[in-house]
Amino acid sequence: MVCPSLDIAKGLHLIAACAMKNAMLRIYSPTDNRTFADGEALPADAVWIDLYNPTPAEEALLEAALGIDIPTVDDMAEIETSSRLYLDNDAIVLTVTLATGILAETPETCQVSFVLGRHHLVTVRYHAVRSFENFAAQATRSPELCAGPAAALMALMDTIVDRLADGFEHVGREVDAISRAAFRRADPGARGRQVRRSNLALQSLLTRLGAAQDSLSKARESAVSLSRALSFLLFAAPKDASLAPHIKTQLRDLASLTDQANFTGNNLTFLLDATLGLISIEQNVVLKIFSVAAVVFMPPTLVAGIYGMNFAFMPELQWHLGYPLALLIMLASAVLPYLIFRWRGWM
Length: 347
Hints:
Elements (H helix, E strand, L loop, with lengths): L12 E2 L9 E3 L1 E2 L18 E5 L3 H11 L6 H4 L4 H4 E4 L2 E10 L7 E9 L4 E5 L4 H12 L7 H35 L15 H38 L7 H64 L14 H23 L3
Parallel strand pairs: 4-8
Antiparallel strand pairs: 1-3, 2-4, 5-6, 6-7, 7-8
Helix pairs in contact: 4-5, 5-6, 5-7, 6-7, 7-8
């Protein structure tokens, strides 16, 4: 998307998208509302060009018009710093990793390239990023956000960082909810009574913890990538652009987000260990019940086994009260171990 300069008198016209195989090249033009065709010259007031899943023809068009190499999807997948942050014919190329889908519980990471030239800002992406759509809407309402390519880049970065902060806040709220579910188990209907969590409920907490950790790791990766890109931009940007104060502010914001990520990560680690401990306790309770049941029924089994023997001389078999006495002995032998266990605090 290309944003207009401030002295446009005819207003903003959003150029139609080239919807061919999901490719999209969008610009703002002060003259008319039309499709940006292959081989056509860029509008003189073009400031920001957004390439979403571009076609080779669109890339060639911009490379010929701007005199720079547009990063391809393979170039953007490189992980070494020298391939992601560099200068190209006085243009600053920044490739960053952005986290998407955190608020929608479908976290992913994607690569986005920013090419900052003297007269144009070009962004290249192969995934839908909500921050870009949000900034496009803001630029439509406030054209001053795109007074120039550097101003457009800073405003777009602000939108990206704000969206990333929303993602961190979402993960933080989810971690708090997991903590309440794991530890705050008081029964409102019974004073001081704790509601036990079943293994199934605890396993559900583990699943939520894994999802939160996945979102947090992708958000942290995005924050680190943006910090590296802005640090390079602070070094490479022209001094007359007066970007240093704005870049330093964004770097401080990203540093605070990184600290928040470390804090949330420590909470996730604690909750993971605690949940695994609770699962172990619940399993031990089940095993203890089986162990106690085996011990409780062992004496009655012994008594029944003795009186089930076929001996010729067994006086109790001739008693009228022999059978009730045997039942009473079995009951006593079962209740007595139970009472001893309760008295010793073993159960």
